[in-house]
């Protein structure tokens, strides 16, 4: 692979991040407010996604339970992508579509947040998780791309849709990662104020 091809990945990623920043900033701020409010009221955040989005779900949960950039008490977040016994039992006994929704039904309560990641906006099992969350009077923050797909049409006015204005999966995932870090930082600032370096 020549250097020009490598450089084009960096340039495209940077350009899409810059384009996304202005479009997504108000929605990310809404997500931070929604999540901070839920956490302040003793609720939790459940997170799900497939493939790279599963890794992002686990990354987000790890940042809340552990820490992001400053020492603080653990915050309740649970990635629904990690328990292989639950995932394989539900997929085998019911269907792959239900691997997250069963867990939302088991662990989710009114006032909790579901952070749902799908680069296409059309992941059937993420859609099923959203349905289960809305039935339980949970709020949803959806991270999508490619126009938002079917997930964009499922959300209520009380939910938050962060849809990356891009069609290439890798670029959408890269913006999702920045978004996750913005949310983690925003929650920390809401909890403690100021800047980590102050």
From TrEMBL:
One of its GO terms (cellular component) is cytoplasm. The keyword Ribonucleoprotein does not apply. Transmembrane segments: none annotated. Its main location: cytoplasm. GO terms for molecular function: carbohydrate derivative binding; D-sedoheptulose 7-phosphate isomerase activity; zinc ion binding. SUPFAM superfamilies: SIS domain. Its cofactor is Zn(2+). It is an enzyme of class 5 (isomerase). Residues 35-197 form the SIS domain. It is found in: Cytoplasm. InterPro entries: GmhA/DiaA, Phosphoheptose_Isoase, SIS_dom, SIS_dom_sf, SIS_GmhA/DiaA_subfam. PROSITE patterns: SIS. Belongs to the SIS family. GmhA subfamily. Homotetramer. The reaction produces a racemic mixture of D-glycero-alpha-D-manno-heptose 7-phosphate and D-glycero-beta-D-manno-heptose 7-phosphate. Catalyzes the isomerization of sedoheptulose 7-phosphate in D-glycero-D-manno-heptose 7-phosphate. This is Phosphoheptose isomerase. It comes from Duganella fentianensis.
